[in-house]
Structure formats: C-alpha cells, structure tokens
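Figure 2 data, in text form.
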Amino acid sequence: MRRVLALLLAAAAAGLLASGAGAKTPLPTAPQGTGHEPTAGGGDNGGQTFTARYALAVLDISFDQLEVFIFPKKVACNDVNFATPPYIEVIVDTNGAPIRVGKPSLSNGRAFVQVNFHQAKAENDIQPGASITFTKIGPARNSVWHGRLTVTKQRFQGHTFSYDGTFAATWCGKD
C-alpha cells in the first residue's frame, strides 16, 4: 500500500511540474487585430530570388519561441519541421511578453526577431535589419495570423539576403 501511495504521489508531483513547464510566451486567448494581408512578397535568399506563396505559424515549445514559416509552396502543419528548402523561418522571442499586434515586435537585447534563410545546402540567420509586425492573431487552431515581414538588404558570407512582404499564416498551435 505504501509503495502504491508513493507512486501516486510521485506521479502527481511529475504532473504538477509538467503543467508548469508550459510556454511562457503568452498566446492570445481571443482574436486580436484586424489585418487581412495575403501571403505575398519576396526577396533575395542567398543570391536566389524567393517568392512567398504560403505561410504557417507555430509555437516552438522547446525554445518557447513563436515561429512564422514562409514557403514558395503549400506545406502541412505536421510537415513544417521537415520542409524542403528554400523557405524563410522567422523566430520571434518575446521574452515572456505578450505578442505585439499592430506594432513591430521588439528586438531589444532580451526579446528578438531573427530571420533564418534556408537554402538547399545552407542556412543563414539574420537579426539586425529584421522586423515583423503582426496585424491579426488568434488562438484557434487553423486561424490565420496576418502581418508584414521586412529584412533590409545585406550581405553575409558572400551572399545577399533581403525580404519584403506580407503573410497570412495558418496557426498550427504548439509543436
């Protein structure tokens, strides 16, 4: 009986710890914003022209970061981590603050925006000059998050990177 009680207590403690291990990035509890931008735009992905046609948004619970993926073709939510380049991945780390709607996300040394340009044989990560503004977000799975992404033109490791466009990203929820 003691052994059963000890196992139950251990399981209860593990459950309490796991429930507190959730994401610290506050997700919206109701829709916010009025954006209606389509997925459109493009830029230079390491010397190759990139055109946006589809987007997904995910909360990466491993790093507690919001990620927006911009693709040249449709990708399913369950395939986002296995997508074939080229694509653009935007990482928004709010440092525990609510997601900003209608204003650019912060890049202040604690919170940041990073844009990862994925090519067939390389990935290049850009922080300075990257800006994302969410204009509409919502909590429901498959809701659409709208916004604008810009990355000022810059050279890195002999390649050129830039982006200017809007997105209508399907919300996939937590991964």
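Caption note: Residues 23-174 form one domain.
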